[in-house]
C-alpha cells in the first residue's frame, strides 16, 4: 500500500472530482456492523428521532462490498481484530472509517496496564477518518461525525456550526 | 467466505452419502446481533450442527474487577449488558451491600425498582424490534425505539447517561429523583398501554409472524434446567422461574405482579412472555410510584470500603434472565474475585442442541427469540 | 406523424424513451421507496440532497459509478460480469410491448403477453448466475432459493394468465386493454360474468408477482438477516447498482402488466368523453401503475418475511389449486353464458 | 418435588462421609448458611473426585446449573472450583466447592450430568487453566483460538 503512487497528484479533474465528492458525501452507505454498546446508539441514529436518512446515509448494507463507510462501534478485541481487518479489506475503494466511541479510539475504559484482550484503538489496524468520542457517544455526536466526514470529502460544511455567544 | 465442500461422508447405515457444507455466520452478520459467530454445518438448508463461537467481544470484566476498588468497578457493570444496565449495577451493588452489611434507605430501594423496571421495558423494546427485523419486518424496530427514547430521556434526567447509567451506589443512589422524573414516569405509564395494544394488533396478531414463531425452536423445561437457561426462555417453557418472585430482593415482595408463563416451549411463547412482561413491569412501576416514601437516598457507607473475607452472591432478574454476581473478598479494599454469571451465556449454550435439524430460516428466528446481547455472553 | 412513421427513427425514439422511462423510474422509485418507508416509520427520509431530497438518486448513482470495480477471487469472471447485464435487459425489452396509451406503444406485438412472460424467466436466470458465479455460500443458497421460488410461482401465475386468455382470446396487450373499455365495471378485475372469482384471481396474480419480483414478504433471495445480501453479496459498485435498478424496473414491468390485464390499462374508470382520450390515456395508466407500485412498497414496510418452506407451501398447496379452480370456473361460465 | 435443606444435608453428609482420600478437611464441609447474609442457602465442600456424584445428587433433586467458576488461592497454592446451582421452583441456592492443587489442577467434568457445564468449564479452563478430564472439547471459548495463557491466574503477566 505504501509504495503506491498517489495518482491524484499526477492527474487531476478538478471540477469532476468536486462533483464526485459531492455524490459520495451525500450517499454514504454504512456497513451493518455493531460491536458493543455504541452499536445501540448507532442504531438509534437510524431511528425516527435522529433519522440518518436525511443525509442519505440510512442504507445500512450488510455486505462489505456495497458499503462505503465502516462505523467501528464498540470495543475491538484481539480475537475480533483479524475479522474486522478482513471486513475493511473487503470494502471497495473509496472507503471511510469512523471510530465511534472511546473503545474504538483508544480502548477506552478497558485499557489498564497488563490488559490482555483489547486492541488499543482501531487505528492500529487501519486508517481512521473521523473519531467520535464518548462512552457511548450520543446520537448527535455520530451525526456530527458524519457531517465532519462529509466536510472532509467536499471541503464544505453542510450546516453552519453553532457558536457560543459571548 | 470461500465455498469449500467437505468430502462426502456416508450417512448412517445404508443411506446415500450426504454432502454437507459449513456456513460461517459472522462474526459480522445481520442476525448475529453484534459479533456472534455460528459455524453451521448444513445439509442444503437443513442444519446438522450449529456451533456458536463466542469471545469476539471478550472485554475481561472479571479481570478488571480484581485490580480496582469496589467502587471503581461500578462503571463496568453497566457495560456488560448495556441494554439492561440498571439490573447489572443492582446485582453488583447488592452483593457488596450484602457483604459489607450496608443498609439501603427505603426511598432508594423504591427508585431502584422503578428504574429497573423501566430499564426492563426499554430492553424488551429493543429485543422486540431486533427480533422483528430478524424476521424481515423493519418498521417495528423504529416504533420500538420511539417508545424507548421516552425512557432514555427519563434516565438522562436522573443520571446523565442514555445507555450506561451507573446510577446505583453502595448504600443508595448517586442522585435523588426529581419531580420531573416522577411526572415523566407517570406520563409514560399513560402512554405505554395504548402502544402495547397497537403492537398487539399490528404485529403479534400478524399471521406471518405467528407462522414464523409458532412451533419453532422448541426448548423443553428439562433442557432449560440442564443448561441453566433462565428469563423469558425458561418462562416460555412453562416454568414460573423469576428471581423477583422465587428469590425476592430489594422491595419486590411489596408489589403485586404476575409472572407470565407459557407452556408451549416455542419461539412464540418466548415472544408472548416478553410482551406480557412489559405490562407487568408497568404494573410494578405504578405501584412503586404510589408507594414511594420520602427520605434520603443514601445510607451510611464507610469511606474506605472493606468487605469481611468470604464470598457473597446476589442475583437479580435482569431483562434476559438470572444475573448473579459472586464476589470473593479477602478483606482488602479491592475484590479478590468477581464472577459474573450472565443469562445470555447460559441461554445461548443450549442453542447447539436445540437447533439441530432445523431449517436455516427457523434457526435464525429462534436465535432472535433467545434475546441475546453478545457482550453479555463474552463479558 | 409522417416523421414518426419512418421505422428506424421511430424505433430509436422509443428506445431512448423507454431507456429514459426505465432509468427515471428505477432512480426515483428508490427515492420514493425511501420516502415511503420514512413516512411509514414516522421520519422524514432523505431530504438534504437537493430540495426534498430529489438529488438523492443522482448522488447514489454517481457514487456507485465511481466505486472500485473488482471481481472477487475465485469467481467466474465472465458470468459474474454478465449477470447484471442479463438482469437489466428483460425489463427494457418487456416495456416495448406495454401500451401506455391507445397509440403510445413502442412496438405492439400480437403475442406481447407471451414475450413478457418468456423474458421474465431470464431475470431469474441472471440472479441464479450472479449468485452462483460470485463463489459465496450465501449467494449460492440464495440462487437456489430464487430458482425454486420462481418455479413454484410461475405455475399459478401462468394459470391465471390462461384464465385471462380464455376471456380475452388474444395475447395482444393493446387489444386486451381495448376490450376493457366502458368504465371500471368492465375491467377484468370485475368481469364477474366470465368468472365469479375474478378479484381472487387478481389477488393470486399479485401474490405471484410479488414472489416473482422477490419483494417482501417473499424476498427470500435477499433475505438480509439470513443471507447477508443474498445473490448480490459479492457485488459492489455499479454491478450492485444495476441489480438494484433492475429490481425496481421489474416492479414497473410487473405492475404495468397487472394494470393492463386487470385494471383496464389506459382506459378511463368512468366512460365520460371529457376524461378519456389520447391525452388522458397515459395519465390513467401511470396513475394505476403507481398506485400498484405504492401497494408493493407499502406491503414491504409492513409485513415480516415468510419462511422459505412456507412460501413454497403457499404456492403448491394453496395458490395452484385455487388458480386451477378459477380456470375451471371460467371455462364453465364462458360455456354457460 | 421441592427439596429442603434437610434433604440436601442428608444427601451430602452421606457423600462426604464416604470419602476415603486424605484431602484437607474444611472446618465444616457441609453447612446451611443464611441467605440474607451470603446470598445462598447451602454450602458443601467436597473432595475433587466427589464433584460428579454431588452433581448427580443435585440433578436428581431437580436443581439447575447456575455457573462454574474458579478462584486462584495463590497463597495456599490451591485452585478452588465453585459450582453454583439454583432450583427453578424454590429459592434454594446451593454452592458446591472443591480444591485442587495449583500446580496440577485436574478434576473430572460434570458436563455429562449437566450439558450446560460444557461452556462453563471451557471458560474456567480459559481463565485458570483447570483441566476437566473427560470434557468433550476443552478448546478456548472466550480467548482467541490459539491462546495459551490463563489470565485470571493471580501470577499472570501479559
Summarize the structure.
The complex is a heterotetramer of chains A (about 170), B (about 375), C (about 325) and D (about 160). In chain A, about 30% of the residues lie in helices and about 10% in strands.
Description of the molecule:
The complex is a heterotetramer of chains A (166), B (379), C (337) and D (158). The N and C termini of chain A lie far apart (48 Å). Helix content of chain A is 32%, strand content 8%. By secondary structure, chain A is mainly alpha-helical. Chain A has helices at 14-25, 37-46, 81-90, 102-106, 139-154; strands spanning 69-73, 96-100, 130-132. The mean pLDDT of chain A is 84. Chain B is an alpha+beta fold and 379 residues long. Chain B has a single domain, classed as Cytochrome-c3 Hydrogenase, chain B (Orthogonal Bundle). In chain B, strands 1-2-3 form a 3-stranded antiparallel sheet. Chain B has a 3-stranded antiparallel sheet with strand order 6-7-8. A two-stranded antiparallel ribbon of chain B has the order 4-5. Helix content of chain B is 47%, strand content 12%. Chain B starts with 20 loop residues before the first strand and ends with a helix. Chain C has one domain. Chain C is built from 11 helices and no strands. With 158 residues, chain D is of the alpha/beta class. Chain D has a 5-stranded mixed sheet with strand order 1-2-5-4-3, covered by helices on one side. In chain D, a hairpin with a 6-residue loop joins strand 4 and strand 5. In chain D, helix 1 (5-17) packs antiparallel against helix 3. The longest helix of chain D has 13 residues, at 5-17. Chain D is globular and about 45 Å long. In chain D, 47% of the residues are buried. Residues 18-23 of chain D have low confidence and may be disordered. The chains are: A mainly alpha (166), B alpha+beta (379), C mainly alpha (337), D alpha/beta (158). Chain A binds chain D through residues 78-79, 114-117, and chain D through 143-145, 149, 151, 156-158.
